[in-house]
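REQUEST FORM: STRUCTURE PREDICTION
Request ID: SP-0412
Submitted by: Lab K.M.
Chain count: 1
Length (residues): 239
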Amino acid sequence: MNTTKIKLVAGTAALAAASCVAGIEAQYALPDSHDVSSYSTSTRSYLDPPTGKVYLGFDIGPAFQQGITITDTIGDTDQVTFGTGVRMDFQLGYNFTPHWAAELETGLIIVPVNNSVFLGTDFMEVNFVEFPVMLNVIYTQPLGDHLSAYVGGGVGGAFSDYSNEFGEATENDSTFAYQGLAGLKYTFNERWELGLSYKFLGTTEHDLGSGIDSNLNPTTFQSNGTMTHSVLVALTCRF
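STATUS: Completed
RESULT:
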């Protein structure tokens, strides 16, 4: 990754982590009259937030992208492989029932390109950068006093490009995106949850813009859709 993108990811993750830690510390600093443990003794479990419960979420973890094929207008092809990258997301969600929720999610995925003749990885570092914006529907099922499992899916769009270490990038591209997810979460109290999730993000075909083909003629480049697998640590704060 280039220095600017590394600083962006690290800074955002650090800010989110610091905010969450401060919130947890404040939660445990409440006086006895606001003891959150009383929530678990009510008829409703931690795992069943009241209808209308709003929440904010953050997750981060490694991203693994499947290889793709880039083609040009005369039929040249390039088999592209990727290294291990990073994905982080932010969610704003709403529980319509104790088990069903809808959320708006936006995020950032940065994955290094290992091998591509068309993208020039023989002489410079290149990253695939993607900004997904998704609308997800989530179903949660309690498994115990504080543990629950969830599955979900979403649709939306993804905005992407390939950028190199010199600050150059292919044309910005927008595509339809779809997503599946599943995970486990542990609820500490009525406000905080920590979880582990898996996400699969797929897109339709990408238009990579114009360039020069092997015969030194102007051409355009396209690729098949991307498929990205991520394993993420997730933190949720409910209101």
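NOTES: Residues 3-28 form the longest helix (26 residues).
Reviewed by: T.R.
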